[in-house]
Backbone:
C-alpha cells in the first residue's frame, strides 16, 4: 500500500537565492512546502482561501497566494519569501525598516505578506502614488492599522530607494 510520503515527488526550485530540493505530495500547497521542509515560517497562513494575503510570496517576481499555489508548479522557478528580502548584507530592507519605523506592523501577522506585495509593486513602479500602493495591496488584509501607516511605509521606502539610486548614479558619475 502506498503512503502519502511514498507518493511524494522530487521538487527543485530557487528559494531566496538558493537552490532547494525537497519532496512534495502531488496535491501539496506551496505554503506547506515553504513552512514544512523548507523551514520558512515567515510566510503565514491566514484564511487558507486566498482572501487575506498573509501567505503572499513571489514566484518569478509575481505575487501569489502560497495557500492556493500548487507546490509542484514552482519546479525550476524562483521563489522569494519574506526571509529573502533584505538589504543585501542580511539586514532588514528599506521597506522592512519603514514598516517598523512608521508603525505599519501593528500585530505583525499580515506584515510578511504586505511587505512581499509592496516589494513587487516597488520593483515595477519605483515611485507609486498612494492609490497605486492601495491597489497593489488590495489582496492583503490588515485588521490593525487601517492601512494609513502601511501606505506611508511603502511611500517612505520608495523615496529612500530612489534617493539611494540617485546617490549611486552620482557616485558613478552618471547624470541623475
Residues:
Amino acid at each position: 500500500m502506498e503512503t502519502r510520503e511514498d507518493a511524494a515527488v522530487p521538487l527543485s526550485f530557487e528559494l531566496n537565492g538558493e537552490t532547494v530540493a525537497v519532496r512534495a505530495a502531488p496535491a501539496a500547497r506551496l505554503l506547506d512546502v515553504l513552512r514544512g521542509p523548507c523551514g520558512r515560517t515567515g510566510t503565514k497562513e491566514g484564511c487558507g482561501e486566498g482572501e487575506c494575503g498573509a501567505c503572499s510570496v513571489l514566484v518569478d517576481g509575481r505575487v501569489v497566494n502560497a495557500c492556493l499555489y500548487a507546490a509542484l508548479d514552482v519546479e525550476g522557478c524562483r521563489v522569494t519569501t519574506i526571509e529573502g528580502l533584505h538589504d543585501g548584507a542580511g539586514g532588514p530592507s528599506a521597506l522592512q525598516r519603514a514598516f517598523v519605523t512608521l508603525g505599519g506592523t501593528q500585530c505583525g501577522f499580515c506584515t510578511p505578506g504586505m511587505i512581499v506585495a509592496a516589494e513587487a509593486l516597488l520593483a515595477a513602479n519605483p515611485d507609486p502614488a498612494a492609490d497605486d500602493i492601495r491597489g497593489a495591496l488590495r489582496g492583503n488584509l490588515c485588521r490593525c492599522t487601517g492601512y494609513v501607516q502601511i501606505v506611508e511605509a511603502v511611500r517612505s521606502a520608495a523615496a529612500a530607494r530612489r534617493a539611494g539610486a540617485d546617490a549611486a548614479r552620482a557616485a558613478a558619475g552618471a547624470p541623475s
Summary: The CA atoms of residues 5 and 155 lie 46 Å apart. The chain has two domains: 4-83, 94-169.
